[in-house]
Amino acid sequence: MTSRRIPAGADPVRPGPDTALTIWVDGEAVTGTAGQTIAGVLLGAGRRQWRTTHQDGAPRGVFCGIGVCFDCVVEVNGLRDVRACLRRAQDGDVVVRQGGPVAVGERAGGPGGPVAPDAGRDERGEAEVTR
Q1: pTM above 0.85, yes or no
Q2: Is 39 exposed, middle or buried (0-12, 13-18, 19+ CB in 10 A)?
Q3: Is 67 within 8 Å of 39 (Cβ atoms)?
Q4: CA atoms of 88 and 79, how far apart (whole Å)
Q5: What pLDDT is attached to residue 79?
Q6: What backbone phi and psi angles, to 5 degrees, belong to 71?
Q7: Is the pLDDT of residue 74 over 50?
Q8: Is 23 helix (H, G, I), strand (E, B) or coil?
Q9: Residues 6 or more apart from 64 whose CB is under 8 A from it?
Q10: b/e code 99-130 from CB counts within 10 Å (16+ = b)
């Protein structure tokens, strides 16, 4: 797909030259410009949805665009639940869609075995972050 961005030479603000970057989304190369968020790169490439809800598999993308709603979460470089509207894209980022219908007690994309309802949570119920 081609970018829907205005070429730098045609922009009345006259920004400096663009620095291209490439991220990998579900195994496909998507190009953008340094400084864009992951959501910005995806929207610029014509993608409007990149996640599905767990309950019924409904498509989601950017809703609020300011990090409040969590509709745009994706997995970035192995870290789940990254809000695409807030995370600046870095050249070579690997982005994977999240979501889809999940049976109660099963982990999405996992081996399908049962997991504890609090799996991936610390003693306070907060999501554990592993790097």
Answers
A1: no
A2: buried
A3: no
A4: 14
A5: 95
A6: -70, -20
A7: yes
A8: strand
A9: 71, 85
A10: beeeeeeeeeeeeeeeeeeeeeeeeeeeeeee
